[in-house]
Amino acid sequence: MRQYIISILFASICLGNRLDYFQQHVAYDIEVTLDDSAHTLDAYEKIIYTNNSPDSLDFIWFHIWPNAYKNTETAFAKQRERFLNTSFIFSEEKKRGYIDSLNFTIDGIKADWDYHPDWIDVAKVQLPKSLPPGDVITIETPFFVKLPKVFSRLGHTGKHYEITQWYPKPAVYDHLGWHPMPYLDMGEFYSEFGSFDVRITLPEEYRIMATGDLVNGEAEYAWLDSLAQEGDSLHALDKKAFKKAIKKLKKSGKKKGEKKNFLQKLKAKFKKEKKERETPILKTLHFHQDNVHDFAWFADPKWIVRKGILYLADSTRQVTLWSMYHPKNAELWENSIEYLHDSGYWYSVFNGDYPYNHITAVDGDMSAGGGMEYPNITVISKMDSKHLLEMVIMHEVGHNWFYGILGSNERDHTWMDEGLNEFNNIRYWEAKYGDENRKWIVNEFTQEKLGPFSVGKNLQFGFFEYAGYSSWVKKGDEEPMETSANAFKQRTNYWLSYSKPLLYTWHLLDYLGEEVIDTIMHSYYRDWEFKHPYPEDYFAYFKKFSNKDLAWYTHDVFYETGRVDYSVKIEDNEAVFKNLGDLTLPFEAAFYNKKKNEISRHWYENVKKIQRVSLPEGTKSVIIDPDQTLPDGNRPNNATSKPLAFTWVFDQPQYYKREIFWMPWLFSGNHYNGWTPGLNFYNGFVPGYDYGIGFRPMWDFLNEQLVGSFSASKTVYGLGSFYSSNFSFDAARNSGRTGAHFEFKGKRKKHLERFPVWKTIFNIDYHNILENAVDSEYYDSGESATGYAEMELYNRPNPFLTYYFRTAVKTGIVNSQFLRFNLQTNIYYKFTKKLKAKLRIWVGGFLDAIDLPRQYRTYLSGNIDPDFRNNYLFNRTADVNDASIGTHQYDIGGPSLHGLILDDIDKMLGVDS
User: Fold this and answer.
1) For residue range 117-126, what is the model confidence (pLDDT) as tens digits?
2) pTM for this one?
3) Which of 422, 567, 828, 880 is the most exposed place for a label (fewest CB within 10 A)?
């Protein structure tokens, strides 16, 4: 009895006090044959299902996810349509897929089954008799899968195969009951842990990688080892020889775009048919794996193979590393074994040792995202740089921990795997590259290969996550993280499940310290590996290992929405901290003397409105969040003193300085001014700022004078009834015109809805146009001012229909008297992938035209940029009198018919279809 009580107490501690915890067990035995000419799978499945729940079961929900690709009425297709993606909707039926030939038996007795009332990729299998707690049944069925083209995760591209979510799989039954769910593009999975024995039969030339280890696979491993030696030899070649070898490997496959005459095509057809009639030499490989909740496999006859070894820290156990990639991506994947090694190593350090025998990455064609994880193996889409490839491999390998080993419900609690995995991503990057070298290379050419002229050479990994998060949250359309994936109304909010937990957990690490976070993550991993944790189970460890009030993290971050915005000022020898945002987070502040040397730093908690703090002696400036871990959406107000700094074109923003980005402006000019080179300066505009200022001085070599422009812009969200309100001003001297433009642009839309969008625009323009700078037939010179108002509706109710309606008036204010109106409607409809229709209707005229400047007349060609907003109009003078303004250069507006035609009547009607 004493031992029993101790066991209950231990379980209570380990499982976050969930004494009701249980989990089912499934043992799969699957035999499958790939037909690579028909692109099908013929298979038989046997499952030993153990009911460890306290309930008797009368049925079992099964996921038969290949049916997601069967027609355009599936949940997958409807989600695609909801997010305006038509690639599957307009696909040919022969490129879609399905699963059939199901015939379930339970312990040898035929079982009735039917589809879910809403989803054809979920089936309900009735048990011949109730399955009581603790009992075991054997479920068997044949099944046949027609593989689709790769629309999402499952499928093929030619002879390249990505076999994922491919077999009938029982849904999870846990303390909340059954969790049947359809396959979705946006929204991942939740599956029972168990064991897999899978025998795959396919043509012998295929390289194949899968979940689990080969049983009696010595011959296959020997072949893969020989291929890996070839891969190593390939990458040992010098650059010239390497490129030559890769070119040869590419040619050994199908030559895309190769032109053939009729006889060549006929010969190729006969050759293909003959090859298909020949019986291919097949091989059968047996894979086994325990303690996983899914099984995926990938096959390709052309992959380059690489192999490596990972020794875990403080362990002699070795993990085999495999990478397989297409010849066309060989240079990019050169260091892929290093990426696999470092990912496995650091994730083991941060969370707990990797428990399986191999980590594999394969080069794929998956279209659902940058990469996709499965136990032991990940598939990676095309990447643009080695840094991006490392990031995606690292992220997908990390999913072996989150949700591979810590098997949370990805569909309902996406942040538990994506967000915590992203948090480990930034820890990896810092651990590997160091705090001062967290560089993030998106484009190797522009960021590294231009020497002193490289742009963005100091961009850091965390900045991209911060930029995406802060840019979106300030708009007010955020949804709580604790939202089921398919319930997100805005696709961006699903992607916040990655960045938001990363940023706030990164700040939490800064607040609690690395030792506490390591203790929490290791304990969480140790207690919940191969189990199904829920959010409350994760949060329990913060209460256990920290005595601080962390409700801002365990509740506010995941169950609420809002912005972080702290500011600081120095008043009367005090630092005045203000909370201008919606959330209350602890923050660190640093105090500096006049030489910018740090005096001290302190953490401040629970600053909900305002807090005054006496300055340490000698303080001249204060910075909130000196290490920039706080997800503050307005960082410039976090510092009291900001020295001037100049930065070439663009780089990691220095928020605590008055940073001016600059670049030469060489490719500008027009007929009147000639070549006008200069410099372009700007401040703001990037995430973390709520304004932008630009200044562009240029020299007019033709008239020997200074020209250029100044602009300023600020966007406010939630002002009055407007979703967003943008205020902008610019003044310019160029093209023989000195002028200014002020504009207000407000957008209205329903909260969390993308469409419809109502836009309201008001602007005032002032011009002083020199007489010799314009053609007097089309422009009046001298001073003038006009006003403009516009109402616009833009709607896209579905992927097929887009329509746009606009009504506007323009009036003279100074040295002119006119009132012009126009109505415009654009309608676009997409019937098929290639068949599209467009209808444009424009109606306009003048209610008053007593003193109408020529440039504001109506032209059938559109307009001639009367307010000088188009920087690409090169010539407004009369020097080239070939009507080039209207014939070769016209600005869309008005009827927009090609050719310059003057209008001497009051009303115009244009139809363009």
Assistant:
1) 999 999 999 9
2) 0.91
3) 880
